[in-house]
Specification:
The chain is an alpha+beta fold. It has six helices and twelve strands. A hairpin with a 5-residue loop joins strand 6 and strand 7. The radius of gyration is 18 Å and the shape is globular.
Length: 269
């Protein structure tokens, strides 16, 4: 569904107070995360918290570990959001928790399902007897000398109305929301819903409420045997038993030891 995602079409539909209100739309861009980070670095003027960059097509879209994220124009949601949280550095993953919850709940509200989250940042759907990835998050932040987060740029990429022929090929099975639902999905409605939910989660976090319990319930990784790979290290293989309050994955290996993993490429086995 190639509906209009320009500011004049979407802003009147927003129910948020500040998130997405500074709205920048591009037909084509290199990477929404890269451009928003440049805007923050230049700081003239300083973009406010809640600034959103949204593009119909990215020529150099990125996922975690510098993987490319590609999508044909008119098929997906590709956006970046700016936050200025002043949180301890270890709390950054809270934004990943909140965003993946907001995306999953917004999609469920449009009738898609079953839906889940693969630790730490992939949104998944159940199709043809297996979990398939339909989106992911990319978090890039800056920490001040006091160890507190100054800015976070949160990138969100979602396969909304991609056909089977348009889906990228990779190790992880992939799909799109429309393929799972069996009908086209309104990108604008999905955007409006996820922004509203994310703003609510963020304001609750600012008041001290953790998203961890709700996020843990949505994780499809827990209770499964997984392999966690980190650059320059041997993969850790074991059972994903839980996540801690900061979102680190607790992986129990065969020797009974429990390892807290803050960042890794995790695959289900």
């Amino acid at each position: 569904m190639g509906e209009d995602l320009r500011a004049t079409a979407v802003i009147p539909q927003l129910t948020t107070h500040w998130l997405g209100r500074s709205y920048h739309y591009y037909d084509t861009i290199t990477s929404t995360n890269s451009v928003l980070k440049d805007m923050v670095a230049q700081g003239i003027p300083a973009p406010p918290a809640g600034t959103m960059l949204l593009a119909d097509y990215q020529s150099a879209g990125r996922g975690r570990l510098d993987r490319r994220w590609e999508a044909a124009p008119g098929t997906s949601l590709m956006l970046s959001l700016l936050f200025r949280p002043d949180w301890p550095g270890q709390q950054a993953l809270w934004l990943t928790m909140m965003a993946s919850l907001a995306v999953t709940e917004a999609a469920a509200g449009l009738g898609a399902g079953p839906l889940g989250i693969r630790w730490p940042n992939d949104v998944m759907l159940w199709q043809d007897g297996e979990w398939r990835k339909w989106g992911g998050l990319l978090l890039e932040g800056s920490v001040g000398e006091n160890g507190r987060l100054q800015t976070i740029v949160l990138g969100i990429g979602l396969n909304v109305n991609m056909t089977a022929a348009q889906l990228p090929q990779g190790i992880t099975p992939v799909s799109s929301l429309s393929l799972a639902a069996g009908r086209p999905i309104s990108r604008a409605q999905l955007l409006v819903d996820l922004l509203a939910r994310l703003e609510t989660y963020y304001e609750a976090a600012q008041a001290g409420q953790t998203p961890q319990p709700a996020w843990q319930q949505r994780l499809i990784t827990l209770g499964r045997k997984v392999s966690a790979s980190r650059p320059g290290e041997e993969p850790l293989v074991g059972e994903a038993v839980a996540v801690d309050e900061w979102g680190q994955l607790l992986l129990q290996t065969g020797d009974g030891r429990v390892h807290a993993i803050a960042a890794a490429d995790v695959s289900l086995r």
